[in-house]
Amino acid sequence: MHNCQGTRLHKMWVLFVGFFLLGGVPLSSAQFQQEVNVTIEGYMFRTTQTPLQLNTETVIHIKNMDDVRHDFGSQMFLNTLTEVESNGVITYGNGVEGAYIDPGKEVSIRLVLDHPGRFQFQCSIHKDMKGEILLLTVDAV
Ligand SMILES: [Cu+2]
User: Fold this and answer.
1) How does 128-139 read in b/e, with b if 16+ C-beta sit within 10 Å?
2) Ligand 1 centroid, distance to 125 Cα (angstroms)
């Protein structure tokens, strides 16, 4: 009788621990980040992206291969908390307009997009430099 009770308690403890172990899985997949790579070369944006999901941390890496300074600006950052990492310095805010990228340098912009659409970006220095990131409604798996 007493022994049986002990086994049941032990089982409950295993379930309890198992719950936390399994509970960690969705948490770490929430930290999954999707990436967009943008290369600037010859005064043009070249974008490489996979299908993007909503409400998922998205990192846009922008590399400037030109020997002039460019800018990566977009309306998509305006009402979203956005983190910009440039030359080892991270700035974070709501209402970021964009980031300047010096020749040969790289900038990473991190944000979570919560509505689908075509998100246009441009260089404010060279007005005809434009590109877009496409965010489709893809149900989270
Ligand atoms: Cu430019």
Assistant:
1) ebebbbebeeee
2) 5
Please tell me the distance between residue 7's alpha carbon and the centre of ligand 1 in angstroms: 69
| Ligand 1 ion: residues within 5 Å (CB) | 70, 123, 125-126, 129
Where are the chain's structural domains?
1-31, 33-135
User: Is 33-135 a domain of CATH 2.60.40.420?
Assistant: yes
Q: Could you tell me the distance, in angstroms and rounded to a whole number, from the CA of residue 31 to the centre of ligand 1?
A: 32
Q: For the CA atoms of the chain, what is the radius of gyration? A: 22
Cβ neighbors of 103 (< 8 A, separation 6 or more) are: 64, 66, 67, 68, 69
Each residue's pLDDT tens digit, 24-83: 444 344 468 899 999 999 999 999 998 888 889 999 999 999 999 999 999 999 889 999
